[in-house]
Fold this protein.
Amino acid sequence: MTEAARASGTEGRARVCARRAAGIVIGDFFNQRGISSKSSTYERLRTLRTLPDMPVDVVQVVDHFLLRVNPDQRLPVPIDLIDEARWLKSRLLDEYE
């Protein structure tokens, strides 16, 4: 859905979908480790970033998903949340398996 949203020119929708995808990835990560997780993507992101052994690069990417858009509806830093959702999946689910 993220790619379709981007292709149709709705970047805001693409960011929302990328955040949801990140939330699903984090939920899977928590389930694999027996960690209780909240249902909202926002709470999952906040919980993940506070885990004691979470690598700095994961925390930095999670922080990107927590950024708010500016008045122009753009993120304040030049990042691609779709790419970062893919990276997060690879880092959390593929590397930790």
